[in-house]
């Protein structure tokens, strides 16, 4: 504590030297009936801090996740069925549905034409990663994040109609969609090309088997037709032989009767 203002010692006598006063030996415990200091006032802004938004440090420290207010600029390709299915309940407390608003959306991770929204649960404050497009995996047991179906279809469109990455970004900029790096577009094109090539090989094998089976059936029908023709010729030849034999026998009997 600070020095005493009154120049007195512990016994109450006046003294010329200022002395520090010590704390009283007995202090009564004060109980606060109403604690008005309970609560948290966040001054971190829209994203929140570690107290009111657990896990926000990972979003702020990631280079792939956009946590600024510019994430809601531009357009997005959203599949409503997929988005609403993942908004049914929280992944931690299972309360739902999750609220989709400017306050609950804490960030976005854009993946080509698809992406994920990081939405905070209003019950347990947990951050949920919600995709706004359908995804697929070539090998379900493999590790890593799945690919968005719209990106694979964009790669197929590059092969079929759009052309190179520059033309794709020109189309996206015209539609006010976020651009995609040339490297990622090449990856999408390569993945779509492998799938198209695999489907073409599968279709060709199936058509070859169907053509082989059809050829086998045609050959069997031709063999059956030839056998039927041979049987018919044999039967007709036998009938003609029998007719000639009968006529010859009748002529022989007639000649014998004429002699007698």
UniProtKB/TrEMBL annotation:
Region of interest (Disordered), residue spans: 215-260
InterPro entries linked: Mutator_transp_dom
Mutator-like transposase domain segment(s): 74-235
Biased composition (Basic and acidic residues): 234-251
Biased composition (Acidic residues): 220-233
Organism superkingdom: Eukaryota
Protein name: Mutator-like transposase domain-containing protein
Origin species: Mytilus galloprovincialis
Taxonomic lineage: Eukaryota, Metazoa, Spiralia, Lophotrochozoa, Mollusca
